[in-house]
Amino acid sequence: MNLTFIIGSIVAWGMVLFGIISGGEEGPLASILVFTHLPSALIVVGGVFGVLIASFPMEVLKTVPKLVKIAVFPPKHKPKEYIDQIELFAQTARSKGLLALEDPANKCEDVFLKQAIMLVVDANDPDKVRAMLEDSIEFTTERHSVGISVCEKGMALGPAFGMIGTLIGLILMLVTLGNEGSDLGGSMAVALITTFYGSLLANVLFAPLGSALKNAHNKEVLCMQLVVEGVMSIAAGSNPRLIREKLEFMLAKSDVSKGKAAGTV
Q: CA dist 44 to 125, 168, 171, Å?
């Protein structure tokens, strides 16, 4: 379970709700009702999801519930466990030969690692094996990028439809400007609610969801890269300890790269 995603989302939505409630003088329910406007919600929510439906094929849209599940319950890809497994495979191959890897490979839960080991056991050309495994990583990246692009599209559409709703509200307000008894304050508040809805949808829903999917993708790809380098080193007959040090270096380098990326504006 992705506790940071769950806790962060609860805190974000909770702080917004707290700000709404604490800012009113007529009680929590009255404050919430001020920010409740069905036409504005329909413009923003309906517009955003309508464009998302128009922008992606049904095959992609069907995966949206799965994307939410991945964000909340990401697949368990632990790089250090992969390094431990690969070192054990390397020790077995060094002492008993590559053919001895077939039985432990069949018991391996990770499909990619199993396939990589079996390709080596079958004595395939190392260059072709590496190319096949790297192609698999590229296909995985392309598949994941589609789901991430749904969130990125939603992030862009939220503020856009918020502005559209605001413009609609301002136009309607200007139309009634000369009418006797027109409520300019109330009309302006309604016009701004759509901007609020759009920003909320983009920054508190789609942004955390997209980030969670990217984190899950990066961790899976890292583990796949560890498998590629580890298995190819096993095929080359490298020392198990040397293989472990090489993979740990890759893991440390990946952590440094992520830190630099996080600090980039």
A: 55, 12, 17
Terminal CA-CA length for the chain: 29
Q: What is the band of 134 on the pLDDT scale with cuts at 50, 70, 90?
A: very high
pTM: 0.81
CA–CA dist 170, 153 (Å, integer) = 26
Can you tell me the distance from the alpha carbon of 265 to that of 252, in angstroms, rounded to the nearest whole number? 22
Range in 23-27, 94-98, 118-122, 158-162 the model is least confident about:
23-27
**Do residues 165 and 198 make contact, with C-beta atoms less than 8 angstroms apart?**
yes
Alpha carbons 103 and 113: distance in angstroms, whole number: 13
- Residue 167: closest CA among 195, 145, 148, 141: 195
- Which residues have CB under 8 Å from 42's CB, separation 6+? none
Nearest to 84, CA basis, from 241, 258, 250: 241
Burial of 127 (0-12, 13-18, 19+ CB in 10 A): exposed
Which two tokens mark 236? 């080359």
Asked if pLDDT for residue 263 goes beyond 50, the answer is no
Alpha carbon dihedral 134, 136, 138, 139, in 10-degree steps, equals: 170
pLDDT above 70: residue 185: no
Half-sphere exposure of 100 (CA within 13 A, CB side): 11
Instruction: Give the C-alpha separation, 154 to 49, whole Å.
Output: 8
Pull the structure tokens for residue 32.
Answer: 């919430």
CA torsion sign, 119 to 120 to 123 to 125?
positive
* Alpha carbons 238 and 124: distance in angstroms, whole number: 17
| DSSP helix/strand/coil, 27 | coil
